[in-house]
């Protein structure tokens, strides 16, 4: 029997928390902001969470300008108290917590092992891995009590590919394990947990950050990265990540959990 296909928004009636809904300044849109906008366009009420409240408010303003419903919330995900406050705020503002989207991670200061500084290692692991653990820890009891939910974590192709960025790759490999473990131990509670592994993406955090660190122009950085992408010789955008997240968060993926989905223009087929 064919699936029932309607024009109903794919997240109609859902309450979503997007962690990392603000973004680094730049020419293009970032993953977290694109996800928050797309979720709202598809009918979800969105709590836009970011350490930078002004940036979260910018995302909320974009959503409300399109007629969506969204609220800003500031949190430092490396602090347990802030992560404990997230699901409580979601329930207070949105009525429940159906979707948790974890768009967290930093890589500034990363380096090959022999040059990597301890402070940089600690910061990258704390934000990119511990922070995600804390958001999961405090969201899961709420989802269990209400009878289900969908979690989408943003990992990276760096989690499975060799790279000179050691701490970031290790942290994201940990995100993969947290994803599959969460999926396995919460399936009986009807909680799904999946991860997206973006490859080379044209986002401000990637392009502008690399340009600043290397001293190269944005155009030069973009050209080098485009040339490394098998599919069409062009990087993906935050919207490619957002549409993958939309699918995984929606009821269309109701039988999918524990998946590590590469969104990478074919780069992962070169691994191994």
Describe, in plain words, how this protein is organized in 3D.
The chain has 272 residues and is an alpha/beta fold. It has one domain: 3-Layer(aba) Sandwich (Rossmann fold), CATH 3.40.50.720. The protein is built from 8 helices and 7 strands; from the N terminus they run βαβαβαβαβαβαααβ. The chain has a 7-stranded parallel sheet with strand order 3-2-1-4-5-6-7, sandwiched between helices. α4 links the parallel β4 and β5. It is globular and about 45 Å long. The chain starts with 14 loop residues before the first strand and ends in a 9-residue tail after the last strand. The relative contact order is 0.15.
Please outline the major beta sheet: 7 strands, parallel
Task: Just give the CATH class.
Answer: Alpha Beta
Tell me the fraction of residues in β-strands, as a range: 5-15%
Provide the low-confidence segments as ranges: none
* Radius of gyration over all CA atoms, rounded: 18 Å
Could you give the distance between the termini?
39 Å
- CATH topology type: Rossmann fold
Output the structural class: alpha/beta
Shape verdict: globular
Give average pLDDT, whole number: 94
Total separate domains: 1
Q: How would you name the CATH homologous superfamily?
A: NAD(P)-binding Rossmann-like Domain
